[in-house]
Input
Amino acid sequence: MPHLQSKTRNRRPAVRPTKPRASTRAKPGARYTVGLPSPLAVEVERYAETVDTSMSKAIAALVRLGLESQAGRRREFFERLKKNLANDDPSNQDRLVDEFRTLILGR
Output
């Protein structure tokens, strides 16, 4: 009698997907690709070597410092604006406009 093959093949039992485990490490933030002009990339690389860190961490630190600086300038602008609104002296208007322009634009 010939050997009969069963219509169902020997299959492995289905593997149940496991639930993802909660990561014990902190998840990194969003990832971005940044193109830097060559002279700026050299400066960032030099900064990274100076503080002994990776380029990625150096870029993140420099961005954070820039954002903090911008927030500080904005805060200083509004403090000066409140202070000078009380002193409505027309002779100081041009000087104040120049100071505020410097604070806002960083020039």
